[in-house]
Write a structure and sequence with these properties.
Number of helices: 10
Helix content: 25-40%
Largest sheet: 8 strands, mixed
Strand order of the largest sheet: 2-5-6-1-7-10-8-9
Order of helices and strands: EHEHEEEEHEEHEHEHHHHEEH
Strand content: 15-25%
Oligomer: single chain
Distance between the termini: 30 Å
């Protein structure tokens, strides 16, 4: 039985979910939910029992010292609630953030849906990110899909037609459909040649699309500047490798050709409406949508700068040394490589 002590009555609640792992390229989706939780100071009210859903040899617990006392943190999925005020309406968001479970996916989804039912959730939105042949220099493509034909028509979404291997995002969306709960998945495409986290540009694009979907104004904090700095860092690395630069140019040409018909009055109107919402609702705060991550300004050299991958093999490409490197003696070759990054040949294309 689900007990919800200390959770107030919610206003038009929407559940926003993201799971680390296969459906979270560049950590873009889980970072988006984490941003919502941080900006609106979410309060955790429930956590799923890690023993039921996780293989601890796959997702190991971590040990840390807290005032000299050893503390173990177990991998799990936590639920928090935030009140989103501003914009078109005030509503509550139930945030679900965790790791893709190792086992008992049906029970996992049933437990999530149990909380949704008890809280009176009106809609479930699951965020995901996948690796794709998209250039980092263009706005991040975000697709919205649903299994509900009526919801697809009313919210101008795609009705999913995906067939193939799926992750917990696809399973949860299908569970919502069978339970009669309106559910939508938002997917951001992350360039496969710069796939390691973080990817603030993809996170920003997901939040912008989510903002349009649920009708609330999302405070972006430093995400706009982070996305701009990320793109500048990738620009610099790509310019130092002729093969990568040529590959990026080919992706740009393919993207521009494919999307030329979409440069419509409707798309321009959507961007202008978002600008007006932010200008009217957040004085002094710059607009922060993904299309604004241009190449103006100077990279700030912050830690966690992206590294490129070979477009053919998917293996990491160390950054070529420059004269500046010789002067400073610093090594920016990406020694912090994430051994778990996914190359282009085995990247998930799941949108279901």
């Amino acid at each position: 039985m689900i007990e919800l002590e200390g959770v107030p009555e919610l206003i038009d609640p929407v559940m926003i979910c993201a799971f680390e792992g296969w459906n979270d390229a560049g950590d873009a989706a889980s970072t988006a939910v984490g941003h919502l939780d941080r900006e609106w100071k979410g309060e955790v009210f429930a956590a799923l029992d890690a023993e039921d859903y996780y293989d601890f040899q796959v997702n190991r617990p971590t040990v840390a010292l807290d005032n000299g006392v050893r503390k173990i943190t177990w991998p799990t999925t936590r639920l928090s609630v935030v009140r989103a005020e501003g914009g078109e309406k005030t509503r509550d968001l139930v945030l679900v953030r965790g790791i893709e479970p190792s086992m008992r996916w049906r029970s996992f989804c049933n437990e999530i849906l149990g909380y949704a039912h008890e809280l009176g959730v009106e809609m479930v939105v699951v965020l995901g990110a996948l690796l794709g042949d998209t250039p980092h220099t263009r706005p991040v493509p975000v697709s919205g899909v649903t299994s509900d034909p009526d919801l697809a028509r009313s919210l101008d979404l795609e009705e999913t037609r995906y067939e193939g291997p799926t992750g917990i995002v696809g399973i949860l969306q299908e569970a919502c459909t069978h339970a009669g709960v309106p559910a939508v998945s938002l997917w951001a495409a992350v360039p496969h040649y710069v796939s390691q986290p973080p990817n603030p540009k993809a996170t920003l694009a997901l939040l912008n699309r989510l903002e349009d979907l649920i009708g609330v104004r999302i405070p972006l904090g430093e995400l706009t500047e982070d996305a701009r700095a990320w793109q500048l860092g990738v620009d610099q690395l790509a310019s130092e490798d002729s093969e990568v630069a040529e590959y990026v140019q080919s992706l740009e040409e393919a993207r521009d050709t494919a999307e030329l018909p979409e440069a419509s009055g409707e798309a321009i109107a959507r961007e202008f409406e978002r600008y007006l919402r932010r200008r009217d609702g957040s004085p002094g705060t710059p607009g922060g949508h993904a299309t604004e991550t241009g190449t103006g300004g100077v990279a700030d050299g912050r830690e966690g700068a992206p590294y490129l991958r070979d477009p053919g093999s998917g293996h990491p490409r160390p950054r070529k040394p420059s004269a500046k490197d010789d002067d400073s003696g610093d090594d920016a070759s990406g020694d912090d490589e994430d051994a778990g990054s996914t190359g282009p040949d085995d990247r998930p294309d799941d949108q279901g």
